Amino acid sequence: MASNTSHDGTGPRNEQMIANMYGALRSEMNQLYSKITELEMEVSEHSLVMGAIQPLDPSRRCYRMIGGVLVERTIREVLPAVQRNKEGLEEVVARLNEALEKKKMEIADFELKHKIKIRKSDGDTNKAESNLKEGSAQGVLVAASD
Questions:
Q1: pLDDT per residue over 58-111, tens digit each?
Q2: 111 exposed, middle or buried (CB, 10 Å; 0-12, 13-18, 19+)?
Q3: Which of 16, 22, 68, 119 maximizes the CB count within 10 A of its CB?
């Protein structure tokens, strides 16, 4: 009876509950990261579309997908709508970034409260450093014209 957790089982069960809660917090943070990335890609696509159609004649017809239906409009009608959508997406991304920061703080507080420390093996650290060094030497190869 040297261990107070051997008979009542509260120690390991409590540790498992803490580990599950920590995993859930990390999962929520990863979901926020992925949603932010997805929406930032949409913002980028909106910017590309705006850049492509802005120099064109405003009376020129274009097509826009609205709720799965392809609709014919003019650039004059479409450009403001694309701009509004882009601004709305940027606001959502900003709110998600705030939520992500709160989640990071919540995880940090949880780690401090429950004395959770993430251990990384030395092999993984060396591998990450070598990948970083290799990545910094990469570039774009452009063929010279004769």
A1: 999 999 988 999 999 999 999 999 999 999 999 999 999 999 999 999 999 999
A2: middle
A3: 22
Rounded to a whole number, what is the distance in angstroms from the first to the last CA of the chain? 84
Question: Do the domain assignments include residue 23?
Answer: yes
Which CATH number covers residue 100?
1.10.287.370
Question: How many structural domains are present in the chain?
Answer: 1
Query: In whole angstroms, how far apart are CA 54 and each of 74, 79, 89?
Result: 12, 7, 20
For the whole model, what pTM was predicted? 0.70
d(CA 93, CA 41): 11
User: Chain centroid to CA 48: how far?
Assistant: 20
The answer to whether residue 142 is domain-embedded is no
From CA 70, how far away is CA 68, in angstroms rounded?
Answer: 7
User: Which range of residues forms the domain containing residue 103?
Assistant: 12-116
Closest CA to 93 of 49, 54, 47, 60: 47
